[in-house]
Amino acid sequence: MPQVNIGLIGFGTVGTGMVEILINNRQLIEDRLGAEIVLKKIADLDIGSDRGVKIDPTVLTTDAMEIVNDPDIDVVVELVGGCDQAMEYVLMAMERGKHVVTANKALIAKHGKHLFETAEQHNVDIAFEASVAGGIPIIRALREGLSANQIKGILAILNGTSNYILTRMTDEGLSFDEALSIAKRSGYAEVDPTLDIDGSDAAHKLTIIVSLAFGLPCRYEDIFKEGIDMVCPEDIRFAGEFGYCIKLLAIAREVDGHIEARVHPAFVPLDHILANVNEAYNAIYVEGDFVGPTLFYGLGAGKRPTGSAVVSDLMDIARNQIKGITRRVSPLSFVRLPAKELSLKPMDQLITEYYFRFSALDRPGVLSKISGILGANNISIASVIQKGRAGHGSVPVVILTHEAKENDVRKSLELLDKLDVVTEKTVLYRVEKKTGI
């Protein structure tokens, strides 16, 4: 039986999941592949801790270069995370003619262009299914399954931690801090959850998706992102009154020759399929010009789902190796960039509907002052909720708008927040349409 030798760099959570699958489903993998995947070497700084899987101690090493330099290893799996050290290992592996599998979203989002060029130069494959949405095969779907379609747009929930926190806040009326504490205790949030809650994790993933879906070389730094740390129960309640919930969305769509690419909390209609994606689950809603709407749903993180994606890439590369071929599919699906030139749409040119919550003094004429400034900046009001209170303190004034331009919205809020009747900084959310992508 043919044999494909692999080396694993990084024996953490995902690495453990990968090894479990290779051991537990060994016969199934061999039957489907017609070859044996042999784990020849594992490198990690900690080779003494028990991961709960039976490993021959002789395959363990603390020196990753043993894997990089081993001429018998065909594929290097990089699961160390971060960019600097991971980049070094991946480049050296490809320069030595080894294929690479990685789950490193930050590495692909920030350095993908250089990595793909290096893979082409040395005629090797680089696979990264596990870098986006854990066990959901969205990379392969965009590269192959949907490759005959012009992608019209993508709406996605790509961060399980944020989705879990927002679910707890919505279902139980918790504050952000209370929900985050529960997420940490339940193992859904890291000790330092910054990259999850500030939108960075989802933005890394969206960078990869935009490049795949539209053939647009996209830089992580150009993706607009906002996090969920300012979401409060009051806005979640008002969203419900208007028929929406709040989700951290990753959005990419083509509009008039430009690509919108943004990550932020958004109002999602309660009858939209993404409104029912809760807890730590991920979902990617993709619409193609011929296939129509499709949905990819599942666990977006964790050792077993992500390990499953890593092994699927190993099997794909192994099939190529058995047949004596490489680079059957371009890493980003496009062998050459589309003839139609695309660029990212500046965020200040975004046109969408908006939600505003003003904290205003409970006086006559306040609403007319607010609406006057909005109207002067081309912003039309669709719905209003004004809550009165006893006394003359601040009350919430909540407004949904018709479509407006982001630049006009920012100008309006700058003026409104200076009014003597507005007592706190205005809260803003962007609103997704009730129909269409």
Q: Can you give keywords for this protein?
A:
36% helix; elongated; 6-stranded parallel sheet; Alpha-Beta Plaits; single chain; Dihydrodipicolinate Reductase, domain 2; 12-stranded mixed sheet; 3 domains; 14 helices; 18 strands; Rossmann fold; alpha/beta; 437 residues
Task: Summarize the entry for a quick read.
By secondary structure, this protein is of the alpha/beta class.
Assign the CATH architecture of the largest domain.
Answer: 2-Layer Sandwich
* Shape call: elongated
CATH class of the largest domain: Alpha Beta
Helix content: 25-40%
User: Could you give me the name of the CATH homologous superfamily of the largest domain?
Assistant: Dihydrodipicolinate Reductase, domain 2
Terminus-to-terminus distance: 48 Å
Which ranges are low-confidence, i.e. pLDDT below 50, for 5 or more consecutive residues? none
Query: What is the β-strand count?
Result: 18
Name the average pLDDT: 94
Radius of gyration: 24 Å
What does it look like?
By secondary structure, the protein is an alpha/beta fold. It has three domains: 3-134 and 303-323, 3-Layer(aba) Sandwich (Rossmann fold), CATH 3.40.50; 138-299, Dihydrodipicolinate Reductase, domain 2 (2-Layer Sandwich); 347-431, ACT domain (Alpha-Beta Plaits, 2-Layer Sandwich), CATH 3.30.70.260. It is 36% helix and 25% strand. It has 14 helices and 18 strands. The chain has helices spanning 13-24, 26-33, 65-68, 84-95, 105-121, 138-145, 160-172, 176-185, 194-197, 200-214, 233-242, 303-323, 366-376, 406-416, and strands at 3-9, 36-43, 60-61, 75-78, 99-102, 126-127, 151-157, 224-225, 244-255, 258-269, 281-288, 292-299, 343-344, 351-361, 381-386, 394-401, 404-405, 427-431. Strands 7, 8, 9, 10, 11, 12, 13, 14, 15, 16, 17 and 18 form a twelve-stranded mixed β-sheet that branches. The longest helix is centred in the last third of the chain and has 21 residues, at 303-323. The chain is elongated.
